[in-house]
Amino acid sequence: MKIIDNIYNQPERLQKILDTEGTIADNLIRLVQQKHIKKVYFTGSGTSFHASTLISMYFNKFTGLDAQAVIPDNFTNYFVPSLYFKPDETLLIGISQSGTSSSTLDAIRKAKSLSFNTIAISEETKSKIAQEADNVIYLNTGDEGIPVETRGYTSTIMLGLILALRLGLAQNKLNEAKYQDFLTQTKEDITKLPTTLNTAEKFYQQHKNELVTMRKGAIAGYGYNYATAMEAYLKLYETFHAPLSVHEFGELIHGYEMAFDADQYIFLIIANGPEKSLANKYIEFLKQITKHIFIITDQNIAFDSGAKILKVPSLHNDELSPFNLIIPFQIIASRNCEAIGYDTSKYPLKAHSFAHF
């Protein structure tokens, strides 16, 4: 199995997950209603934390719960229970695709020691994490077969979006008509992802010689796509091994720019939101430092000529843009590794990581 195979399988897998929308949230809805849940924490490591960050935004948007993403070790070692939410009305959802994350298991155990309710989201529904949580929700991403997760990320955020929408519907935070409209639009938008894949491939081939010589970079995004920036950072770093940094859009030029020079690669994710009006100001500033500026966007904007622009199809809803805008980074990561002969199908270290049991 190659990373590119999982990347191209994403539209099919996302549709498969969407097809489960009628029942996949039943256990969550039942728990929230029976326990009168008011607060939910999402936790997971690496890609699962990036997904948690986005899913918490979905829950804050569509449900009546107060949602927050938290790094597992921070929750386990430093968490102070809120004075505003009782333990029995608090829920921790631990996400681990493999079901073997030591830190996520520790967080679930910590939550149970605090008398919180717990749910595991995992591909492996009989894993240790799934067994120790009160409930388990099947991730349904399929076996990626390699250490680098791509399809796992988009599968997780699709599942999280469906859970938020279904719970919001059950809580009367959105009505049936709006729910069905969102589903219809999501199904339509999934059919646009092959176009995004093709567009990203052409862009990569056009700029391959520049992208494959990257030695350091920075990625910035905002809103729903700050999570995209975090996941893009991980994909490029863990595959191509060039040092990168990740930033919320506004934070990029609050001191970090002082480390930039002519060798710096900058990737700006420009989605819908107030920040998009600043895109050309960023380019005008950054092009004085480096010529390696890349814009990944779904917006129809006349960008400054100082940047290379990758324009992917626009989708119906802002909440769906992360599914679209992560794909170019996945393609760059995969094709760069192919170009230098690096095999992403194997764990690169001889030492065994204790991050997984």
From TrEMBL:
Source organism superkingdom: Bacteria
Q: Which Gene3D superfamilies match?
A: Glucose-6-phosphate isomerase like protein, domain 1
**InterPro entries, alphabetically?**
GlmS/AgaS_SIS, SIS_dom, SIS_dom_sf
Question: SIS domain spans which residues?
Answer: 28-173
- Which Pfam family, any one, appears in the UniProt record? SIS
Instruction: Report a single Gene Ontology molecular function.
Output: glutamine-fructose-6-phosphate transaminase (isomerizing) activity
| Keyword set, alphabetical order | Repeat
Q: Which residues cross the membrane?
A: none
- A single GO BP: protein N-linked glycosylation
Protein name, entry field = SIS domain-containing protein
Organism this protein belongs to: Lactobacillus melliventris
